[in-house]
Amino acid sequence: LVSCFTVGQHNGLQHLRCDLHRLDEGPSVQTVLTREDGLRYYRTMQTMRRMELKADQLYKQKIIRGFCHLYDGQEACAVGIEAGISPTDHLITAYRSHGYTYTRGVSVKEIMAELTGRSGGVAKGKGGSMHMYAKNFYGGNGIVGAQVPLGAGVALACQYQGKNEVCVTLYGDGAANQGQIFESFNMAALWKLPCIFICENNKYGMGTSVERASASTDYYKRGDYIPGLRVDGMDVLSVREATRFAADYCRSGKGPILMELQTYRYHGHSMSDPGVSYRTREEIQEIRSKSDPITMLKDCMISRNMASLEEIKDIDATVRKEIEEAAQFATSDPEPPLEDLCKHIFYNDAPLEVRGTHPWMRLKSIS
Amino acid sequence: LLLILIASISRATNPPLTFTGTEIEEQVFIADTHCMNVSAGPTQKMNLFQSVTSALDNTLAGDPTAVIFGEDVAFGGVFRCTVGLRDKYGKDRVFNTPLCEQGIVGFGIGAAAAGATAIAEIQFADYIYPAFDQIVNEAAKYRYRSGNMFDCGKLTIRAPWGCVGHGSIYHSQCPEAFFTHCPGIKIVVPRGPVQAKGLLLSCIADQNPCIFFEPKILYRAAVEQVPTEAYQIPLSQAEVLQEGSDLTLVAWGTQVHVLKEVAAMAQEKLGVSCELIDLRTILPWDTETVCKSVVKTGRLLISHEAPVTGGFAAEISSTVQEECFLNLEAPISRVCGYDTPFPHIFEPFYIPDKWKCFEAVKRMINY
Questions:
Q1: Is B273 in the A-facing interface, judged by CB distances under 8 Å?
Q2: Which terminus of chain A has fewer CB atoms gathered within 10 Å of its CB, N or C?
Q3: B197-224, pLDDT tens digit by residue?
Q4: What gap in Å lies between CA A233 and CA A126, rounded to an integer?
Q5: Size of interface A-B (CB pairs under 8 A)
Q6: Which residues form a coiled coil (chain B) (predicted)?
């Protein structure tokens, strides 16, 4: 088996092609993929894929309730970005966040238990699908576009503390038309904040396609005075190289940079959206067969003799088992205790275990 | 003709201290009998979202300046309120906006000021806050600051509102209280399909900017025989649904149906005769009807899902105690949501269900 190979422009697949805006040079068009990295990316993406599909299943069984926005199809973005930054860097995204929660270090068990609203969940069962957090991962945000000024603020903190960290701030093609995005661009550029703005363009904002929502669909140019680049978000290596380039750019003090990842989601906007009233099944099938990120990486590695089919199958089996166990945990873990309803509203809530009273004394329902 | 249908809300019994498990109780939605007289003419069985579509259909047919816009309204909307309208009236009259609430409302104000009947949809009431400045500072004050030279009275904003069983923080909010603090706009909340159509048509016809909140949990659950032609139900008029002599109950939207059950329970278990009032228009509200009722009964209970502190029940309570002080037999009671963010898994315990309201009735009677 080959231990690594160099990926370049001549491989048939459009690896590492990059569109640039206000940049003289972009990320390197060649990169080295080691066997170890390849298998790790494969395993991470496969775990994310199976986790989302399991969430779909549990939602249909009404074990997961609420609103659930699935990430399958977009795995290469999360994995590629994480590969291009380090764990001490910061990341914030919107509500399609289960994948990022995983890449930022939360176990599948904790993610699934949060989806089912149990006390073993990463937010103790109080947040649900859209509100999962981890060290250096600021969520998980429900309101479209609201996380972008937050990301700029985190970048300010990075700059101020001088630890050479960057903040990756993600948003979608729908959010790209929110006013607060442009406010954030202005502040970040004005103060040269180390903020990587990333637009995950999956072609649809809920049910509206990008052509019908945006006067300009060149999202990487929408930062205007902020340099931008656009890469294929279905190719994990392209995303990794672009992220490395962007992180270097920010760390060198040149200010913010904008990245557009062209990607696709197989599911609808959320579990309440069948996802076929505004696009055809043929379109989804075509992307699945021609540009699926996991399949592309697998084929890439097998065709270059970097991994054997048996190894891949072993990984698949291990992942399946991990997800099953996580789902088992998520369905059997107890729900958070009722006292948690009134905890964490303010800092340092007073303890409520006073004899002769109960937690509900503090919350007024009948005035 | 009494139609009884079951809505799919799970509510748990909640004696404060011990919980042996959730017991599912079914909420009964009772269609009104006496409001069948809102309009002569043919009727058709419609649920709440269909009655909204019917109202919009009547508007687009009768008013050539009417336009409907918002996120995803073209394919019918996420709650199907605008199904078929684009095909029938054209894409220049029913169109999607990008994802920008502030922009949507601002744009609507401009369109209305220039003479179009603008009907803007905000996808969930939880997302209305980016538009708060536009509503409060622009829409509400336009006529006042221009000395009646300009106004945006032809603007109506519609938004799905209220708890839905699994909506959690950002799909369950009732923000009417924030807007009642703003003179210049009108706020209306219907309790069912017949009311919704009539009130929406009144809002559209009204020469002031109106916000129309539609209880999303009733979109499918509430079904009534609704007149197919246009009709209006007057604004700023509360409706007495049931006459009584001992206690006045006031609510709006979904909570009206909860209080209907409470009134029945009070009669059966306590022999207490309750007068039930649906406020309908929250701002400007019908002080006369409520005060006349309290003068008769001497007791008032107001209930809403929104948190108790600063909720609209506080305003009603304050006014009624000023007007009817000597008639009151007991302090005015408000049964509302807790002062916490709207919870995910704790929803059944958060909402002011019939047991909490019944408890408040008992306390008032025994005062």
A1: no
A2: N
A3: 999 999 999 999 999 999 999 999 999 9
A4: 32
A5: 125
A6: none
